[in-house]
């Protein structure tokens, strides 16, 4: 591995981050949040010094970025953004310790949405904006926008793009990776602007509309209200939010196909049909359970009325299933008081997650679909050993390498889930809290169950647990391999 290329490229990203901090600094000036002003100035200075010193010590090298350098650059860039992004939380006093600040920032950049802040409504506007802005930057990927700028530096961005974009395969929308990154960001910006307008027309104040649009299109879930979307108690806002959560939980490559008017290819997309069908079945199933359940077994979020009409049950089920399945983490109800079968189903949806190439988290629907089809093929092969049957996605045969890759990813994912859950239980956390906390952090979803449920937060867990869960969030966002390979000696060999 060429360390000079890695450090120089990461320094360029640190300088870009220094410029990004100017935006929340402007928000602090506009709203006269003078208490947070110096926190953002410090972040700008630290980012600028870190990036500038690296550029001075490491000369420009006319070499292509290889896959090893790409993995290292992506991982270190995320770490730099997290540790520098935590400065405003810590220096402004919003977070009591730097550990808390790192947890909140990791949750923001990885679009997890898990929070340890007990009362966000009293926070300055600049901090609320920064929380939502970290969601937005992390949604499409800070590396993706960086990739769009790399040609100006004479650097190839393909290894970075493949290490950043989620899913078992990475396809180009344009012949050049930089052009692909620009197309993705244009789509992302259009969605953000459209959703901001729709939220504003629905009665949200403009500042809240911007912050919630950032958190929605990124499937990040950070809200400016303690009660999340439930604060507005507005069916229009819930429908708009759910629709855009679903849209952004689908592969962004599909929207490029929309611009190309290739609707036939979109309708034949196997992952989209699986993801849409999964959401639809789960919504109806949960709504029926909420409606038919015994009155004494669960209550709604207000605690005073029962789910006695199907319309109310369907409304709660529709929003919560979509927000969990896409990994957004908004809430309109305390689903931790729902029947156990509903809670289990929601945790299962966290594991499955959204589509590959989306802003959502989880294992990804296409991997689950490939594993299901592959498993069915092997079961049938027991009876018909000479049968030749291909696993097909979008009408095309899936190679054995991709099937093996999905199987390995699934096993490694469950392995880390088990180990991290055991680590949390070793600190005397109960099983439900530990399992759901690791699950929601690895799936970049947000709320869990029990002590980290939607009506509570992560403030009461120990510092050790916060570092473990921060690790889980980053592990899930980088889809394990990019982060795991950093610790293998073979990655560092030249």
Terminal CA distance: 4 Å
Unreliable runs: 151-158, 295-306
Strand order of the largest sheet: 1-2
The percent of residues in helical segments reads 55-70%
Characterize the biggest β-sheet: 2 strands, antiparallel
| CA-based gyration radius | 22 Å
Structural class: mainly alpha
Number of helices: 23
Shape: globular
Strand content: under 5%
Plain-language structure description:
- With about 500 residues, the chain is mainly α.
- Helices cover about 65% and strands about 0% of the residues.
- It has 23 helices and 2 strands.
- The protein has helices at about 5-20, 20-30, 35-55, 65-85, 85-90, 100-110, 125-140, 140-150, 160-165, 175-200, 205-215, 235-250, 255-260, 265, 270-290, 310-325, 340-350, 365-385, 400-425, 430-440, 465-475, 480-485, 490; strands spanning about 390-395, 395.
- A two-stranded antiparallel sheet has the order 1-2.
- Helix 2 packs antiparallel against helix 3 (about 35-55), helix 19 packs antiparallel against helix 21 and helix 20 (about 430-440) runs parallel beside helix 21.
- The chain is globular.
- Mean pLDDT is about 85; it is low at about 150-160 and about 295-305.
């Amino acid at each position: 591995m060429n360390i000079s290329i890695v450090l120089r490229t990461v320094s360029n990203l640190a300088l870009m981050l220094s410029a990004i901090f100017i935006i929340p600094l402007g928000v602090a000036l506009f709203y006269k949040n003078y208490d947070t002003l110096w926190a953002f100035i410090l972040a700008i200075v630290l980012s600028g010094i870190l990036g500038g010193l690296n550029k001075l010590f490491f000369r420009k090298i006319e070499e292509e970025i290889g896959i090893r350098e790409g993995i290292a650059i992506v991982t270190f860039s995320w770490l730099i953004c997290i540790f520098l992004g935590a400065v405003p939380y810590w220096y402004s006093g919003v977070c009591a310790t730097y550990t808390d600040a790192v947890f909140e920032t990791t949750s923001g950049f990885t679009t997890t949405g898990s929070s340890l802040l007990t009362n966000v409504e009293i926070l300055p506007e600049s901090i609320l904006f920064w929380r939502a802005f970290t969601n937005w930057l992390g949604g499409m990927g800070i590396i993706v926008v960086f990739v769009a700028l790399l040609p100006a530096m004479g650097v190839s961005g393909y290894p970075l793009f493949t290490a950043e974009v989620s899913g078992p395969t990475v396809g180009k929308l344009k012949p050049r990776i930089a052009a692909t990154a620009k197309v993705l960001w244009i789509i992302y910006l259009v969605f953000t602007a459209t959703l901001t307008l729709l939220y504003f027309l629905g009665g949200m104040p403009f500042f809240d509309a911007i912050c919630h649009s950032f958190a929605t299109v990124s499937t990040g879930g950070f809200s400016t209200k303690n009660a999340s979307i439930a604060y507005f108690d507005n069916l229009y806002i819930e429908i708009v939010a759910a629709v855009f959560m679903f849209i952004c939980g689908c592969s962004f490559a599909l929207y490029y196909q929309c611009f190309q008017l290739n609707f036939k290819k979109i309708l034949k997309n196997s992952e989209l049909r699986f993801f849409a069908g999964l959401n639809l079945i789960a919504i109806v199933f949960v709504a029926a359970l909420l409606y038919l359940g015994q009155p004494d077994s669960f209550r709604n979020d207000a605690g005073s009325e029962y789910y006695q009409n199907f319309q109310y049950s369907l409304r709660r089920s529709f929003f919560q299933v979509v927000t969990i399945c896409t990994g957004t983490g908004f809430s309109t109800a305390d689903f931790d008081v729902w029947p156990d079968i509903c809670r289990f189903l929601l945790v299962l949806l966290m594991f499955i997650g959204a589509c590959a190439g989306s802003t959502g988290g989880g294992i990804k629907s296409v991997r689950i679909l490939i594993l299901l089809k592959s498993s069915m093929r092997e079961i049938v092969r027991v009876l018909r050993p000479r049968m030749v049957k291909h696993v097909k996605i979008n009408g095309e045969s899936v190679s054995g390498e991709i099937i093996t890759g999905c199987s390995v990813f699934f096993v490694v994912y469950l392995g880390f889930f088990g180990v991290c859950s055991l680590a949390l239980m070793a600190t005397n956390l109960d099983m439900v809290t530990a399992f759901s906390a690791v699950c929601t952090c690895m799936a970049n979803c947000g709320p869990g169950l029990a002590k980290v449920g939607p009506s509570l937060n992560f403030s009461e867990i120990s510092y050790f647990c916060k570092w473990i869960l921060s690790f889980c969030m980053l592990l899930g966002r980088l889809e394990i391999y990019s982060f795991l390979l950093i610790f293998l000696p073979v990655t560092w060999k030249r």
